[in-house]
Amino acid sequence: MPTTPPAPVLLVASSGGHLAQLWSLRPWWSGRARAWVTFDTPDAAALLDGEEVHWARRPTTRRIADLLRNTGLAARVLTARRPAAVVSTGAGVALPFFVLARLLRVPTVYIEVYDRIETPAPTARLCRPFTTLFLAQWEEQRAFMPSAITVGPLL
Known about the structure:
This protein is α/β, with parallel strands linked by helices and 155 residues long. The protein has a single domain (9-150), classed as Rossmann fold, CATH 3.40.50.2000.
């Protein structure tokens, strides 16, 4: 009897530092089926060479047209891939994926970025209602995310 392949983890992040923080979780995700969502930049393309990548539009939530395009991308990827979870460090590209994942009952994990110590990132505030699990990189971040679990710095 054929077996169903495991559901992938969907890793969603802006390129640059947000993507670098998700990449640093490689010991965790390397043995899992996975797909990525990020921006088509030279650094992201080089880093994710050989990975399944879905390129998002930018500047994400700052332009309604790109927000709508990324919402369409989220709908296509989430329904086609049926991920086991959506994991993100932000930024704005995460929002449509978290909203639709919540509607589809897909667990979401938001990891607050390492450089936000005193106030939450705007994306953390926007994604909060749609987040299953918050992770903090610094204990100080729990002041604005009391339910978060501190995992320590990723970089």
